[in-house]
Fold this sequence. Notes:
The structure is a homodimer. Chain A is α/β, with parallel strands linked by helices. Helix content of chain A is 43%, strand content 15%. Chain A is built from ten helices and nine strands. Chain A has helices at residues 15-27, 52-56, 65-77, 93-105, 115-126, 139-143, 146-153, 163-175, 190-206, 236-248, and strands at 6-11, 39-44, 80-85, 111-112, 132-136, 157-159, 211-214, 227-228, 231-235. Chain A is globular, with a radius of gyration of 17 Å. The first copy, chain A, starts with 5 loop residues before the first strand and ends in a 12-residue tail after the last helix. Chains A and B meet through helix 1, strand 2 and helix 3 of A and helix 1, strand 2 and helix 3 of B.
Amino acid sequence: xxxTQIIGIVGGVGPHAGLDLGRKVLEQTRATxxxxxxxxxxxSWPRCVPDRTAFLLGQSNDDPVPGMVCCVQALESVGATVxxxxxxxxxxxxxxxxxxATLRSSGSGIVVINMIQEVARFIQCxxxxxxxxxxxxxxxxxxxxxxxxxxxxxxxxxxxxxxxVQRELVHGAIxxxxxxxxxxxxxxxxxxxxAVLAAxxxxxNDKGAEALVLGCTELPLAVSERFLHGRPVxxxxxxxxxxxxxxVEPERLKPFDMGA
Amino acid sequence: xxxTQIIGIVGGVGPHAGLDLGRKVLEQTRATxxxxxxxxxxxSWPRCVPDRTAFLLGQSNDDPVPGMVCCVQALESVGATVxxxxxxxxxxxxxxxxxxATLRSSGSGIVVINMIQEVARFIQCxxxxxxxxxxxxxxxxxxxxxxxxxxxxxxxxxxxxxxxVQRELVHGAIxxxxxxxxxxxxxxxxxxxxAVLAAxxxxxNDKGAEALVLGCTELPLAVSERFLHGRPVxxxxxxxxxxxxxxVEPERLKPFDMGA
Lengths: 260, 260
C-alpha cells in the first residue's frame, strides 16, 4: 500500500468525464517527473450507477445512490482518503446527502468533496464581483436547483436557461444518441458544440449572467474557452480537481491561471 | 460489487499514459450510453513504481516490480479479473516475468495481458505482409530488446534507431524535463513531436522498417497519425485497449478501423 495519500475518483458518470477529471488532477499538479504526481484511483463502473437525471426526473426508478456508495467504499478499500464524483447531477441534494448519510452510517471515514460547494467558493475567491452565475447543466441538475441551493447560501444567484433552450440545446447536446457528447466525444460533434455555445450566449446576453459554470462534466469536452463574450467560464470539474489536489498536497497545487 | 467483469489498468507509469489507456478502452467499445461502457478501475500510483528504464539500465537500484505487484493486487481486490499495464518498458522480460511469477506465487488469479505479445499478433492479423517493424521506445525497452524477443518468436524482425537517434531524439522526446512528453503533455511540445517524427522517418527511410510501433505509451500523445510515409503506425496502447475489451466482452469490441 502506498505511504502517501490517495485521491479517489468516482468515474463512469459518464466514463469520459471520469477520465477527464483524472486528467485535470494531473494538469493542476506541479510535477515534472512521473513520481511527483499524486497517487490516484479511478473507478469507472457505469453499469453500477444508473442515470442520475432519469431518476431525479421520475423517468426511472433505478436509484443511482447504492452504486455510488459501492464505488466510494471500493475507493476507500484501496486506500483513498478523499474522493470526488465526476458528475454534477450526482450532487443534487436528494442524491448527495443520501450518499453521505449512507457512507457515515456504514462507518466510512472518507471525505467526499462537494463539487458545487467548491465552485461557489472558487467564484467568490477568483471573481469576487460576480453575483449572477449562469448554469449549464443537465435537466436533472437544473430541475433540482442543485446549484441554486448552494449558491443562495453564498450570496450568489444561479441563472438557468429558458425551458426550451434547456431542453433543446443543453440537454440535447449532452444526451442525444446521435450527436450528444455522451455518444460522440472523441471529438465532440460540431452540432453539440454549437448548441452549448448558443445556450451560453443566451445566458450571458438574454439572462444577465455575469459568469458561466459548466455544470455537467461532459460540457468541457465541447467548450474549452476560459472566457465567452468577455465573461469567465468556470469548469466545475477543474475546480473539483484543484480541491482534490489541495486536500492531499496543497504545496503541489499549481497557482490558478486566469487565462484571458 | 459489480456483476459484470472489471478491466484493471496499472496506470501512473506514466500518469498521462494510464488515463490515455483508459480513454482508448472507451474508444474501442461500442456504446452510445454510459451504461453500455465496460466497468474499469485505474490505479495511478506513480509514487509506488520507480522508473523502469533507470532500473533496467542500472542507473537506479529502485526495483519497480514490487510496486507493480501491489498495484495489480489492489486491482484484483476491487474485482478486476484482467489487467493491462500502461507502460511498454514494464514488459521487459526482467520485469514482466518477475511480476507474473510473484503474482502467481501469491495466489493471484488475475490475467495480466502482455502488451508486446498483443502487438505482434495485431500486426500479423492486420498487416500480414509486414516483416520488419520499427520500434520507437524508451532506452529501457530498446536496450533490453523487449520487442525483439517477442517478435522473433512470431517471425517478425524488430528494427531500432541508430544509437544517437535513440538517445537524442526518442529518449529526449520522452524524458527531457523541459520539453519531454512526461514533463509537458497538454499539449505536447512542438520539439518533442518533431523529434519523434524525425526518428520515425529515420526508421522508415534509413533502416528499412515496413511499419512502426509506438512502443512507449507516452508517444501517441505526440503522434496521432495512423500512417507515416505510407506505412502503418501501430499504437501499442490502442492494441492493449482492444485486447482488454475483447477479454471481457468481445461483442462490444469495435471493428478495427484501418484509417488511411
